[in-house]
Amino acid sequence: MSVASLRRAARESVSGLPREFWWLWTSTLVNRLGAFVATFMTLYLTLERGYSASFVGLVVALHGLGGVISSLVAGVLTDRLGRRPTLVAAQASTAFSVALLGFMEHPAAIAAVATLVGMTSNASRPAVQAMMADIVRPEDRVRAFALNYWAINLGFAVSATAAGFIAEYSYLAGFLGEAALTLLCAVLVYVKLPESRPERTAAEKAAAEPEIGLGTVLRDGRFMGVVGLSFLISLIFMQGSFGLPLAMGAAGFSTADYGLVIGVNGLLIVLLQIPVTRFIEHRDPQKLLVISALLAGYGFGLTAFGGSVWSLALTVCVWTLAEIVNSPTQMGLVARLSPLHGRGRYQGMYTMSWAVASLVAPLMAGFAIEHFGAGWLWGSTAVLGMVAALGYWLLMRGLAEDEQVSGGDHEGEGQGEGQGEGQGVGVVPAATAPPVKPATAATAASGS
Question: 183-238 pLDDT, tens per residue?
């Protein structure tokens, strides 16, 4: 590919997105530059504090439990109070709790504050995702999600490598650095980002359309299928943060070794996310999700055969490709199935799948490694990948069948907003996008 072609591809990747998106993108980048706790919590508790794998698994699981609790609450607040106030409050409270965690010494205090960090840090996700769906046109959303994910991993690639060396000097410096950058994000959002929550039109108010509640989300079988599969995929990917450092620590690797290995994940996403997204953007989402699930499972499964830093880095390359393909594909599907006035709740439920996985993954990793050995953990990830691949194949086949019945030209909620909310989003082409379920888009549920 020529230099001119590369420049043209770069321009096409970033053009046409609103200014608000770029401020949100900048906030994401700054936030991930300070990502220390989620990456080095396991090594901090084992190597610095000397706790057992079981206790570490419990603490990190409590961190995940906090995220489970906050996901649904933050989703409701995102719809009721707005995206901007929810995001600012979440980031400011995260900065405080992360700094506090660095000073905790008693095991019970560490567990309690880790739970608080999980609650506050996870609370921003529904607001970010809903705001992005609000401000970006449907036809640009896959590109926007890919760019945002690129920012996450650009920050992660830098922070994971740098934080590994910072941890060799002082874990407390890592905690305080993350707190400072997270507080900077809160200020940035407050100053630069306007509220994006769509208001109900006069016609909608006149029709007395009931508010979408959590019950609506739970009764949406199609969307809950996506949530369930997201949980399985998350359970696999999160072993990069939980199982991998535990296994490497038990095998005698240092924190710097782990930082270099996991940094490959962020680096590859920085290099490949945009070109790969351009390649897969209009391809069959069923095949993409199935292939990505298999690559994720078998990629982590290969970790059982890694005996050096470089061999472990090669296994990271395999499951990173799965992550690059799965993330924009799945996020496009989630945005597509989220109704206009219920985006916060839908995104909160989707975020909860990751939070539940972060609760289960450390327990799974700690128990498997301590009682059976790391090989059993990596074998389990291969099995989970196959199960998720089968689930995606069945789910997407169902979407295709619904599409044939409906004729592929149904309009979803929000079509009158001037942004074509009901049109195809993500890797599903607009002309063949499955319609929003009537029960999802237009019916009421219990308040939440």
Answer: 998 998 899 888 887 776 555 554 445 567 778 788 888 889 989 999 999 999 99
Distance CA 395, CA 329 (A): 14
- 339 and 75 Cβ atoms separated by less than 8 Å: no
Cα 92–94–96 angle (5° rounding)?
Answer: 75
Residue 431 burial class via C-beta count within 10 angstroms: exposed 0-12, middle 13-18, buried 19 and up: exposed
- Which residue in the block uniquely carries the two structure tokens 């059993």? 376
Of 369, 97, 62, 80, whose CA–CA distance to 214 is shortest? 80
Residue from 354, 363, 357 nearest 71 by CA = 354
- Is 226 within 8 Å of 286 (Cβ atoms)? no
Residue 47: DSSP 8-state: I
The total of other beta-carbon atoms located within 10 Å of residue 107's CB is 14
For residue 352, what pLDDT is reported? 85
CA distance linking residue 124 with residue 86, whole number of Å:
7
- Between helix 343-371 and helix 124-135 the angle, nearest 10°, is 140
pLDDT by residue (tens digit) across 280-321?
777 787 889 999 999 999 999 999 998 889 999 999 999 999
**92 band by pLDDT with thresholds 50, 70 and 90:** very high
What is the pTM (predicted TM-score) of this model?
Answer: 0.69
Full DSSP string of 167-199: HHH-HHHHHHHHHHHHHHHHHHHHHH----PPP
